[in-house]
């Protein structure tokens, strides 16, 4: 039941000169590794790699390719490693398997704009054409057994195959795989339409076979009589190509198509020069439809396809005028059409293939590039001016989007390619989850993640390693626009924002508030330079602010009033906190309670009284009772400035967005400040106001960092301390 014998038989049939023992060993190695694993069909897993190897045999493989086909799922799906494979089968095989493993990681999310990139990536990731051929055969067999897979998965795989794998087979000229894949995809993606066309085609064949055979025979006899040595065959077009044709022409039945089948005339290779002679003879004998003549010998299709196509009327019964398509080619052209790029192994020494400069020893990707540049002219034009395709690498965003970059590109090139802001604010890059330097050279298939910080800016140093012209230009542009005036303007904006936040007047035209700075008298020029430095991010606005206004000036008397109000509202719990902010000289843990008879004001004048049983009660110095109490028992109680807290109210305006409060809470928890109450209300449809009541701060820096961090939350439009 294991199909390995079929593989051996086919090797024999093709007379491939392989070391069958080594192939047997690969089979045993794979069978052992996959032991116990099953396909969705229920068959032992090993049947799959064998089927893939059997398919590979159609494409003139070398021995390593067959071995790699047998091992292609071993390193990914079993506990055998690439090293194990290398130990037994050598580096060529293990490299092929590595390439296949890498390709299997490219999963498409299949949305139009990405598809073209994905195809390019697929192709360029495989540094060896053999990897692609094996991969195509792998996908071919998976498509053939797709009925065993879950329904949703079927659709995804079929779509991916149609969008990525079939076009690659087509670009490489491998029509055999291309049309097989397309028909299979068609079957799974549009089962009803598939059935309709299939039964129509069956009907057509049963009605026309006889007739087609007659045409074929007639043509063969006649050509032989003219002295040509030819084989003549007829073939029906594939279901999918008929479907596309019907759709394109807006037709509903295949009866209305006159090229449902084609007759193919194949000449021996040595008779290549007779191609046109044969064509001419046919055109003399039957009437050609001039519009339908195509010379793909003089001008091959972008993927290398060569053949003469003509349609003639009158072949067949006298009263029958249906046009018949005839394709004329040599055996080599025929093999090329079926197996595309793979047939060049077969013909690599032949004279006939030289016209294409197709040398398999040199980089086959070059050939593919030529195909591509002619195939996708418009799309490639812009790219061609800067970079050639073979100098490109393809990397992924964490979401799996493919980005196309030149060789040598760095994470910063990548960031600018995704979005200008991502480049401007890039601080850290991860490649395949590991942190790398910003000038790290990216490789094909890398997953690149960029970490940004809003305050981070481009660095002149980047210009020393950036590879893409657009990234360089964006960085230069950034510096250019960040000229002196601009920097001053930015600096002014930043500083004003802080001043406003702290309830202070904004900068005047003379910048007079900066006149006395750190004990120096600054000229207007100096003041502007200071602003420029703020604008450039060399000096932090908050540190400038600290030099303009002292803490006392920021936390002004109004705040004491605030505290009094607060006190009134507060119940016992917060009064206890008040006691915690007091110290008694000489006592490490004084037992303090607030007196019931008077109102102690935060930071107001206080005095302690030692009681018999309640420790020390704290009174206001203006309390009437304390004045009449025993002066000997009075003790000095002080406010502990170190742990004393100031309370500020903060008002935040923001554009409403989901998740804001979550982000806000996260920021606040990082700052570690206590907020006594907050109030969230709508201003209008889009704007909200968040009011923080009595945030406890112990110093200037707390306040600055609180305001700075809140300002950096997305959506916040203003933050200010309320007086
Ligand atoms: Mn596989």
Structural commentary:
This protein is of the alpha+beta class and 723 residues long. It has 6 domains: 4-189, Hypothetical protein af1432 (Orthogonal Bundle); 192-353 and 371-382, Beta Polymerase, domain 2, CATH 3.30.460; 392-478, Beta-grasp domain (Ubiquitin-like (UB roll)); 482-549, no CATH class; 555-639, no CATH class; 646-721, ACT domain (Alpha-Beta Plaits, 2-Layer Sandwich). Helices cover 48% and strands 16% of the residues. The strands form 7 sheets. Strands 1, 2, 3, 4, 5 and 6 form a 6-stranded mixed sheet that branches. A 4-stranded mixed sheet has the order 15-17-16-18, covered by helices on one side. A 4-stranded antiparallel sheet has the order 21-22-20-23, with helices on both faces. Strand 12 and strand 13 form a beta hairpin. Helix 3 runs antiparallel to helix 4, helix 3 (47-56) crosses helix 9 (129-144) and helix 22 (484-501) packs across helix 24 (541-548). The longest helix has 35 residues, at 191-225. Mean pLDDT is 80; it is low at 108-113 and 348-390. The structure holds manganese (II) ion. Manganese (II) ion (MN) binds next to loops.
